[in-house]
Give the backbone structure.
Amino acid sequence: MNSLEETEPALGKRFRLAFSLSAIAAIIFYWLTCFRTFTWWDNSEYSIAALTLGVPHPPGSLLTVVAGWVVTKLPLGVDKFFALNLFTCLIAAITLYFVARVALSLFYQTAENNDFQIKGFPHGPGMAISLAVLFFGLSATMWHYAIRFTPYMTTALLTILILMAILAWQKRMNDTDSHIWLALITLLFGLDFSVHRTNLLMLPGFLIWIAVIRPKTFISIKHWIFGIAGLVIGLAAQFLLIPIAAGKPFINFNDPSNLSSFWDYITLKQYGGGWLINMFPRKAPFLNAQVADYIKVFGDNFVVGPWPIVRFLPFVLGFTGLILLFRRNWRSGLVLAVMFLFSSLGAILYFNLPENFFRSIDRHYMPSFVIFGIFIAYGAASLMLAVLRVQGRLRLAIVALTAILLALMPIQAAVRNYGQVDGSRSYFAYDTAKNYLSGLPKDAIFFSQADIDTYPLWCLQTAEEFRKDVTVCNISLMNTPWFVEQIIERDSKFPLKLDHAELSALSIIPWHDSTIVLPVSAHAEDYGLADSTVMPDSISFLIRPTLSGQYIFVHDQVVLKTIAANNWQRPICISTLIPESTLNWLNPSLRLEGMFRRLVPARSAISETEILRHNLFENINYRGLADPSIPKEAPTTWMAWNFCSTFLTLSAMEYSAGDTSGCRNAINQMNSLIAPENLSPPEGLATAIANACQ
């Protein structure tokens, strides 16, 4: 067997240049489609964490946050959110470069001696690997996460680094310094513990591989010492969370500033504990739902495009590459096959995806896709080698045709995926945050529902210091004492005052139907009401059990205590994304004002058409919603549907008042600003739109 280094060092330099060009080509696509500001889900949360050196939800990603924090301190001359997204583009490009290097190394290690004499031998396979890796870089999942700041591209980078270390140890496992490489492998696994832990699924595969390839490693005391030392050092990095949390950053999940709360954080106590190992019973049919989700995402990445001639080529090359690698070097083939099995099937088993889950877990399939990317590159190089072996006058034509087919893979991926992932014109999360915060009354206490009406608002408040007078309280997090305590500490004017002991005592409690009466000390003008409006002396809330017909959630208790302590001094508003079934005892006293409902003491005035019309028509930015050329992620569509529901409410209010022209105007404005027909609204919403004003 030969290696690249044993042929000619200059070739190694040429291939490094070729692979760098592939990575640069990918990063150009990433730059063109990169989000210019924050977007939904983990991107907005991790962007806040990076800006403030904070602690995101467990298990978090310490490496990602710290690296992002450093990036935000660099004088790059661009928006900090854009800089974070571009940093992720760079991580993705580096990952692609290393994937190419691993594929090339495997290819040359398994090449026959006579292959090196074939005309065009080193350059043809090298070109094939470059094209295959560029295809992988433009595949749906890789591209999707390469253009936004999240932990998942850090996961991909660690995947390839772990594999490089494993393969390096395999080559040197009989050397006297092999224990150093083993320590490096376990160090990387330990560091990955803070990066969503997805790569840890490969750890059992690595141990099985050692047992098959070199079982005597397990009886070597030196290997045990270095292996454990590397793992401990990697895991110990997590202790940085304690001083970070002690600094009281803006986002500080579970506040792991002491050993007890640190342990709760890393063991995922907030999500049920047990390190989130909950594989049985299965939450959905294993084959029809969970395996089917992986197959669907896998197909979206590697069986793609409108051109049948190359649609299945990546898939065929990948599995052919695995088979050929195993036949030529069963050790390398075995290690990668085992890792692929554990990172794919392991992810399916570990994450135990519920049926009809609102979001695919494609991000957790990233390690298996990185490994399959190596198989594709190896298969592409093997195909080119087979073509180069052809003799005769048609050789050049066959080589050219093969090169064209391989080049069509990244071209087809770019054609298919560009329009689906392009975030360069997507400002939906930014505009949503601006719309919420701009419309809220001064000093409002705003109860939000989910990630999409919480993190974007926090991004705007922390980065631009916009509307910091508004206190955003996520209703789900209000069930956790640590979050309520942080709200109280952060907002000195927050009406609810509870000490640490009282906060720690908060829990779900038994409850029966109860009517709570609160005095009213408010003026009509504070709510945009006519001076003649008669304000009641008190207002009552009928609160029924909100859990299993017997208990009441912590968030209900906290909201009620907050309203009582507030005594109508600060406006209290509820996001329209909060279902009416949540905090349903407040519904009779909530007035719809656009993107939120406001608590008002005069129930006769909760239907103010003029306020709703003014906010919908004048105070909300609908930028890009009606433009079908701008791709829209699920949260954008949900927000658009929510807008449509509010427009329908306005049209119904106009119609009930006998103003049919006002009703029709509301629907026309909705169609012009949102174009719901392009957003595939749910059947109920589509029917309501069709029947409006009738």
User: Anything to note?
Assistant: Residues 428-604 form one domain. The chain has three domains: 4-173+272-421, 428-604, 634-690. The first helix runs from residue 4 to 7.
